[in-house]
Amino acid sequence: MKAVMFIRKSINISEVDKPARNKGEALIKIKYAGICNTDLEILKGYMSYTGVLGHEFAGVVVESDDRGLIGKRVVGEINLGCGKCLWCLSGNKRHCSNRTVLGILNKSGAMAEYLTLPDENLFVIPDAVSDQQAVFTEPIAAAFEILEQVHIKPDERVLLLGDGKLGQLIARVLNAAGINVLVVGKNENKLMLLESQQIHNILMDKFELCQFPVVIEATGSAGGFDLAMQCTEPKGTLVLKSTIAADTGMNFAPIVINEIKVIGSRCGPFAPALRALKDNRIQVEDLITNIFPVTESLKAFEAAQKPGSLKVLIDFGN
Amino acid sequence: MKAVMFIRKSINISEVDKPARNKGEALIKIKYAGICNTDLEILKGYMSYTGVLGHEFAGVVVESDDRGLIGKRVVGEINLGCGKCLWCLSGNKRHCSNRTVLGILNKSGAMAEYLTLPDENLFVIPDAVSDQQAVFTEPIAAAFEILEQVHIKPDERVLLLGDGKLGQLIARVLNAAGINVLVVGKNENKLMLLESQQIHNILMDKFELCQFPVVIEATGSAGGFDLAMQCTEPKGTLVLKSTIAADTGMNFAPIVINEIKVIGSRCGPFAPALRALKDNRIQVEDLITNIFPVTESLKAFEAAQKPGSLKVLIDFGN
Questions:
Q1: CB of A209 less than 8 A from some CB of B
Q2: Nearest-CA distance A256 → chain B (Å)
Q3: For residue B8, with 0-12 CB atoms within 10 Å meaning exposed, 13-18 middle and 19 or more buried, which class applies?
Q4: Average pLDDT of chain A?
Q5: Closest-CA residue in chain A for B86?
Q6: Rounded distance, CA A227 to CA A242, Å?
Q7: pLDDT value at B247 more than 90
Q8: What is the tens place of the pLDDT at every residue in A168-197?
Q9: Contact at 8 Å (CB) between B254 and B228?
Q10: Which of A61, A89, A180, B208 is at 20 to 30 A from B169, Cα to Cα?
Q11: Is A85 in CB contact (< 8 Å) with chain B?
Q12: CB contact, 8 Å: B270 with chain A?
């Protein structure tokens, strides 16, 4: 089968064996995979990952011990737990210390014609949600994680730095929850997409630095943290969403002086993400910049790295 | 009057005018001042401060509009607020954006024969507390700030990195609150002082890296944050106490991946600190390494910078 691999510091489309599923796992035929900023960071060395890339997908179950799953369209939680530790036993595999992570840590990713995942990681895509929409489930879940971690009050002022792929979804998740969010971005076209969703936004060049009780950093760039820190009120909360391969040189004194609470935020819950898509509370179609067939995956990655780009999908033709 | 000044990147003992008090302020004759790590960081450029150093003191009120204060032994909250902003009006001057800070930010410090502070910043030292003990009120208050910010449960495992001046006080404050704290330090003599307080401790060289739900970073060194991050459980809390003048180069990805909550912690409440000293719940005398007369303040600073040193006091002979 065809697979998009990152090996010896370069991407290529390889012919590899179809994966064999273990007991409790499903074999999934991939329809679409999405390119995430984490994939782009992996190309720069993040997590030292090599192998099949990708963790955002929508597919169809072709084999499973659970007959009810066969033929179903699914998305999948990307963290695979040991099943034995306190994290796994309490239902949160995302922090299992022995976990593997789809296309990120010791687990072959989703940019391939076939993929295996434990049945228990799968979520059936509701009929009202298209395959292309469903690819957004994983990053929407990551946006919902913020609401799992921080109690944002109905009348709280929230600043979101970043108008990119994840920033767009975070803005939409917060907006759908009725939260008063202001997005600061660098790209006028991306801000226009937010404007059409009735989400407050401002161009970075026009933003006069001021402080908010809650700031979310989703710039995907090393300098984002420092700006976010400056924009956080004393005793305020700064949610850190960007994972960056590079080290950042900065002074932590403002965290101490202003007694800021910095909360790291990674993967989130799939169920509310799928519900939001099903109920049409979150729009995602306008975020798709390009769709490339798997044979043109290298072009897909080139497109995803362009500054004006948002979500790029790879179509496996299934 | 004599004052210990930091001017043009060096410390010297100068003869300066006695400060004139404004309405609502007290004139305080200093008995002892303490050297804090923040003072040592100021010598490296922290806060770009120049002027009379020092913010830890015990003294006697010699002038005040409030006759009841005259002759009283006092310590003082080091943050001076504008009195008009929401922070000040709600009783917390420590985050007033127009504040000055004793010996740290636009306010002449405590290492001088006389000092002015607003009456409302003063706390009368209880009879049971000696002048030398009272100098520790400010850093003990900073230790109590952790308990203001973080709910540490009775059976929670807490790791404290740092056996220095502030680390010792944090360990003692937590221990006095019945919290199960393990201190990791680099200095055997300093750990022995904790041992004699029945506080669990271990030498850094013997500490095998493991994770705790609550980690407090009080190493006062740039590398402390990185180690603290490694020692914090997923979804755990890392309290950052060190203020460092230098920039630190590091990778923030572990904060995001492990969804750690980093909480900056600075100044704290004086009242519980004085109560703890009065009730003898916290011992501090063993932390005094040296006491120098004001005329030997330069030696005092030399002594405070030695690795084995803990609290160095300057005696103003009053």
A1: no
A2: 4
A3: exposed
A4: 95
A5: A234
A6: 13
A7: no
A8: 999 999 999 999 999 999 999 999 999 999
A9: no
A10: B208
A11: no
A12: no
